[in-house]
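Exercise (ungraded).
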Amino acid sequence: MRIALFASCLADTMFPAAAKATVLLLERLGHEVVFPPEQTCCGQMHVNTGYQDQALPLVRRYVRTFEPCDVVVAPSGSCVGSIRHQHAMVARQAGDEGLATAAEAVAERTFELSELLIDVLKVEDVGAYYPHRVTYHPTCHSLRVLRVGDRPQRLLRQVRGLDLVELPAAEQCCGFGGTFSVKNADTSTAMLADKMRHVIDTGAEVCTAGDASCLMHIGGGLSRSGAGVRTVHLAEILASTEASS
Amino acid sequence: MSTFLGMPVHAPRGVGHLRGDEPFPAAARTALANPQLRSNLRHATTTIRGKSGRVIAELPDWQELRSAGSALKTYTMANMPRLLEQLEEKVTAAGGVVHWAADAEEANRIVTGLIQETGERRAIKIKSMATQEIGLNEALEEAGIEAVETDLAELIVQLGRDKPSHILVPAIHRNRAEIREIFLREMPGVDPALTDDPAELAGAARRYLRETFLSTKVAVSGANFGVAETGTLAVVESEGNGRMCLTLPETLITVMGIEKVVPAWQDLEVFLQLLPRASTGERMNPYTSMWTGVTPGDGPQNFHLVLLDNGRTAVLADEVGRAALHCIRCSACLNVCPVYERTGGHAYGSVYPGPIGAVLSPQLTGIADNASLPYASSLCGACFDACPVKIDIPSILVHLRNQAPHPRTEKAAMAAAAYTMDRPRLYQRAQRAAKLAELLGRKGRALPPPLNGWSASRDLPEVPDESFRDWWRGR
């Protein structure tokens, strides 16, 4: 299958390993990956901070860029959540019904990585090898906006060598919330403190998730505290093989 | 009431409790630094969450019930004027008197006047959000009328000269040791040997309140539901003190927000299943009191219903925001909210705290007076899942953020970001410049304001040597 990658601005700029891993994983599974270079950002930060008029050109850019593609994948639950639940709303708010309809159509073909693997490509065992103790943080938008359910865990359970340990209070937010972590930094830090405590309690070496933004937040806290736990994107674990490790 | 043509008005300033003294982030900072508060809240919200989750899981049709509740509320909002007039007609026919209050001041004036007409100097109160919202106790006090809260938690708050911090459990921020101290200090005639055993504390409150119930001739209540079809008012509660207030006095005055009207008697079937399981985690609430006007020889012989607007019509005028009026005050959204669990209710500055408060208060007051509240959420969505009438709180938060006044520096930064993001070449140059800035500048831990809140507690990721798109191009 020919799959278009929407890298997301955060992974493209700060966490290229997650986007690269998505490419290498899908190619290993026998698919062709394309990267339309006109893509930038889905506009989620602008929408969620109260700047819908400024998000409009980014929504239009996303829709125009990916309109010709049959299937789009993004290694981010929250970007896909925004594309699916906000793009048409932003277009309608601006009175652009044509864009709204087009946005809905592209959103239907846009998938988060675990959705793409399980629902579209019908694969649970991606042939990965990752000999580490790992805990999975479900991320709010994957869980409650996209409803990916246990798809990521099903993928992780098939990874050879991987010891998956359950994260206590996993469904609680890590406190990132985009600009929330800046505007309400103290509350965000209090939420992060509990998330870190739960991660550390699992005894895992690696905390994984399907969103680079939440991992940046949790990883930033873990790094500061010197806890000795790394954050690694789900795509990187699924892309690992005996040869690459 | 004067005729008003044009857009409906917001709740007035200077009366009631819908506005805080400081923005949410500042108020939250104070709360977060209080370990006793943090521990009390963690314990209480975790307990209620567990209990509610267990009894909700027993119902195979919970999702259908939620949809039914949501549909009934949507219908009610669309037919509000007709339903309110029907309610007025039925209550009047049953011997009650209906008053219309445009705002908090008018409602306080009506209730004060009605009590003064009885010649009484004291009123007993049933726990009510509407009377907290309008600051009725303060208005009565000014008129020389003592208002005694009879709900145990409200009594704790009143005796402690405190403010409620939760819709359902207003003293959730207090533990039993603190409650004992308040009772010993403030409760007339309390036994000095009182311990912090919950049964003993409840016993002390019971002794104190029983005297008051038997000697007070006026009661003030709120209402959970007002049935338009029959003119029946309903109050649900756990302690039975509400029923004392509804049956013993000679005069009963009920203050009801206009959105509490429901079309038909049968609709209570849905809400009386949803409310207790979502709020207290009970299968059925212990006391459900319903009354229709006045029954000769039984219960209060004078009944007044005050219908309160206080900004609600303005909320109703907003297509997206009006869903906040669907709220049945169960507080499930507070109990699951990771922000509320850590800051408590006082940080929100309004009697309506938590996620529902963050969407309701700014709409009642106008967004400018509560501009920080729509941002008091990480948009994690736990509230939407927990809401028994399916209010999409995260979407309303985003909608209100779009209306909120924005700080000038933020506006400039957002405009610059959007400009760059809409130009892939410029965006690519900015990516490379970020790496360069890092190499030249501090490899640092601290960001400049207003971003320094992030780097105070978290390390920044290192900018990678190569962006993804540079790697892709070089493949």
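Further reading is listed at the end of the chapter. For now, observe: The longest strand of chain B covers residues 251-257. Strands of chain B lie at 97-101, 122-125, 146-149, 218-221, 225-227, 232-237, 251-257, 261-262, 287-292, 302-308.
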